[in-house]
């Protein structure tokens, strides 16, 4: 497995793959291929979730679930107009202001070749600064007249952004680092792990529209302990007050205390922070009010389940230039691996306290 963090290798393949909500096939195939080489068995379910399981060496009856979601925010074609322009409905949450003048890809139904297009921009000469913008007002130009456009694409086809993954100084920038960064850390941990307990490495679907894949998965597996790895907000940019920045790029893996969907189990939070301190893994506390993660679904899907959440700080969330720091990526992968390889007695102590 190539874990190079220079804009090439597996992380690039994950981020540049197209996997909009509900249509995660390309990313799922990457996850299956990687997990097939590092776990005892791999399976998928009706939601498209991928589960790679390693049977525990000495305590296989204790089951740990580690999850990261493979879907990315995108769109679905809602109409092809008489001029050949495509109108859109959102798959996940967007700030429409970041979408002007972006390149997109339409994933045509039935395995047909994808169709590339652009989201148009309003020239400065005629722009109304007070004009509001919504996703419904955007139009994709595929450079074809209406009849030809309708031959190539259809209402209901999913659409994603097209963007390269590049090394920027000490960071990686590209689309879908939320949450392909988390998937990368999960796959790295699966390759390096030698767990005493049974571990399920899970690539989940449809997180961006209500944690749906994780909710189904948690009910099917019913683990003793669940951890989710996701991207979180990092807003250390000009014009944002320090109190509103949530996390800091380069300060380490975020250990979540709260978000809009979950308050992680305090004993699990304490265990993760102790584990990191013992191994000199940099961490930072995370409190977020306006994002959600799979952790919230996993906590209650099968009754009451102890949960924890680890976060990769991601700047410019839900945009074609999402940015993560190499130090944070490595720290997250190290802490996930440490958790997976933890002593069974420690794990039992965490969930039984």
UniProtKB/TrEMBL annotation:
Cofactor note: Binds 2 divalent metal cations per subunit.
InterPro entries registered for this protein in UniProt: Peptidase_M42 (IPR008007), Peptidase_M42_aminopept (IPR051464), Peptidase_M42_dom2 (IPR023367)
Pfam families hit by this protein: Peptidase_M42 (PF05343)
GO molecular function: aminopeptidase activity; metal ion binding
Assigned keywords, A-Z: Aminopeptidase, Hydrolase, Metal-binding, Protease
Protease in keyword set: yes
Residues that bind Zn(2+) 1: 69, 178, 230
Co-factor(s): a divalent metal cation
Keyword Mitochondrion annotated: no
Binding-site residues, Zn(2+) 2: 178, 208, 318
Annotated GO biological process: proteolysis
Active-site residue list: 207
Record family assignment: Belongs to the peptidase M42 family.
PANTHER family to which the protein is assigned, alphabetical: AMINOPEPTIDASE, AMINOPEPTIDASE YPDE-RELATED
Listed name of the protein: Cellulase
Native source organism of the sequence: Candidatus Halobonum tyrrellensis G22
